[in-house]
Structure prediction request, 111 residues.
Amino acid sequence: MDNTDSIYFAASGLLHGIIQLVVIVACIILVVKQKSGATILMLVGQILALMFSMGRYVWNFVAARDGVDSLLMANKIMALLGPLPYAIFAIGLVLFATNQVKKQHPEQESA
Prediction:
């Protein structure tokens, strides 16, 4: 692998981490302003996503020491489990959006 490839991967990981932190800050603001199950789910999902991202790098580093088979197994497991935090966030976002729509149109429910 070329040195420029390593720089691209490092920059990508750094940018991904910064964006995740921005979303976590936004979720914290939502929880402070409107504490509900939906906003808490969104925050938990994003915190888990950040932990999974950092854990993926660490696990790949450790697994690479044990050989290709170990690295491949680590990548398979992370590919399977990696989307779970985003699913938690998505469920929270759908619940939050549903609650917002209900708050804005209460007269339609009584009809």
Summary: The mean pLDDT is 90. The chain has one domain: 3-101.
